[in-house]
Design brief:
This protein is an alpha+beta fold. The chain has helices spanning 12-22, 29-40, 90-104, 117-120, 161-164, 166-175, 184-191, 252-263, 282-285, 308-314, 363-370, 376-381, 392-400; strands at residues 3-6, 43-49, 52-60, 63-66, 69-72, 75-81, 109-113, 126-127, 130-137, 153-156, 206-210, 219-226, 229-230, 236-238, 240-249, 268-276, 292-299, 301-305, 321-328, 337-344, 347-352, 359-362, 386-387. Strand 11 (206-210) and strand 12 (219-226) form a beta hairpin. Helix 2 packs antiparallel against helix 7 (184-191). It is globular. The two termini are 29 Å apart. Residues 2-147 form the N-acetyltransferase domain. Keywords: Acyltransferase, Transferase. Residues 178-189 have a biased composition (Basic and acidic residues). Homohexamer; trimer of dimers.
Length: 412
């Protein structure tokens, strides 16, 4: 048996070494210092075999945007088990304690990014958002079907990012579900670090904003660039790269102006944007989809409903619905059972029911649908949700629907 207890601040370095061992990682001094600074701000749980740390899990104290509001949602990170203690219940013990603490603290949601997608479904997590990797061939001018916003662009010093683009980011976060809040430390350590954690050849962060001088930005572009790759004879093997880390825009025309800027930077030939939303307007207003291509699609944020009643009654609903749900939850039995959901634009109730269920589903599938990014009807078609009353899944989809698909690029 292992003992689950909090990891004190003076044990963070030990926890880092444990995680680096599990992930086969050897970060340099700068990355280690960055990880240490972030972990100091996290809630940290350790699994100890005697005095030996054999499992670790940290949680960022996030608030997540959900339809109509935001809710407490710890973001799990550095989840790791020592190779000597695999398949001995260490991760299960850590996860059970984390979910218990989430409920006790009044946090109805828990989220993570899965390093191995096969692991977290059994703990009740479902993929609640999707991300796209989009590439633009910028060896020629970007062809668009709409006219870019003509207002001026200017570069902003990263030191001023929180003041200039922080409010723009916060407004965008509330327009689209699935986005955790971003503390000053996360801005500094994760988004604006001089050296990129994943690619040391990339340059420092650059921030371009669009809007009239003296006015709040109508949008911004956060990006890094990489020089062209040459062979030993000085011949170019691949053109320079513009990596778009974040692009937020108030209107499609603003987005068009920012994409045009990214695609027109000298000495570059490719724009690559990782983690774009599945309903990115660029995919519609690009005039040539051979020039603007989706090269990957992947599950992004995984969500867990720690308190189903609180999660369902707190969010906004797009249409009236009244259904009896039979919910399975192997890890949190207090969520399991038969409940009547009555919801609509005026609010929602979720109470124990005796009537026959209209839908039977697992908590992981309800989590996948909760933000509006997965349709219940798709899960019925996949054999994962049982529909006992015809039309029940479609009615729940209509009530869960959001104007924009949920999305985040805040990996943690």
């Amino acid at each position: 048996m292992v003992d689950i207890r909090e990891v004190p601040e003076d044990d963070i370095a030990r926890a880092q070494e444990h995680a680096y061992l599990a992930f086969h990682d050897r970060p340099g001094p700068e990355r280690r210092a960055r990880h240490h600074a972030l972990l100091r701000l996290c809630d940290r749980l350790g699994a100890y075999d005697g005095d030996t740390l054999v499992g670790f899990m940290a949680a960022h104290p996030f608030r997540l945007s959900v339809p109509g509001t935001e809710l407490g949602c710890p973001g799990l990170t550095f989840v790791s088990v020592a190779p000597t203690h695999r398949r001995r219940g260490v991760l299960t013990a850590l996860m059970d304690e984390r979910l218990r603490r989430a409920r006790a603290a009044g946090n109805p949601l828990v989220c993570l990014w899965a390093s191995e997608a096969a692991i977290y479904g059994r703990f009740g997590f479902g993929p609640a958002t999707q991300g796209l990797t989009v590439e633009i061939d910028s060896t020629r001018p970007l062809a668009l079907r709409i006219t870019p916003d003509p207002r001026p662009l200017r570069l902003v010093d990263p030191a001023d990012a929180l003041t200039v683009v922080g409010p723009c980011h916060e407004a965008a976060r509330h327009r689209r579900a699935g986005r955790p809040d971003r503390s000053p430390a996360r801005w500094t350590e994760e988004w604006l670090g001089e050296q990129d954690e994943d690619d040391e050849e990339l340059g420092p962060p650059r921030i371009a904003v669009l809007g009239d001088p003296g006015q709040p930005p109508a949008g911004y572009l956060l990006y890094r660039t990489k020089q062209e790759d040459e062979d030993g004879d000085g011949r170019t093997r691949s053109p320079g790269l513009v990596r778009v880390d974040e692009l937020e825009a108030d209107t499609p025309a603003v987005a068009a102006a920012l994409w045009t800027y990214a695609a027109s930077l000298d000495l570059t030939g490719t724009v690559r944007a990782w983690g774009r939303p599945a309903d990115d307007p660029l995919l519609h207003f690009a005039a040539d989809r051979d020039q603007v291509r989706v090269t990957a699609q992947f599950p992004a944020l995984w969500l867990r409903l720690a308190d189903v009643k609180e999660a369902l009654t707190a969010r906004a609903w797009a249409a009236p619905v009244e259904l009896v749900l039979e919910l399975r939850d192997a890890r949190l039995p207090s969520n399991a059972g038969r409940y009547r959901l009555k919801a609509g634009p005026g609010g929602a109730t979720y109470e124990t029911a005796r009537a026959s269920p209209d839908l039977s589903l697992d908590v992981r599938d309800l989590a996948a649908c909760y933000l509006g990014g997965t349709r219940v009807t798709e899960l019925v078609a996949a054999g994962l949700v049982a529909e006992h009353a015809p039309g029940a899944a479609a009615a729940l989809d209509a009530a869960l629907r959001t104007g924009l698909l949920p999305h985040t690029a805040d990996e943690f």
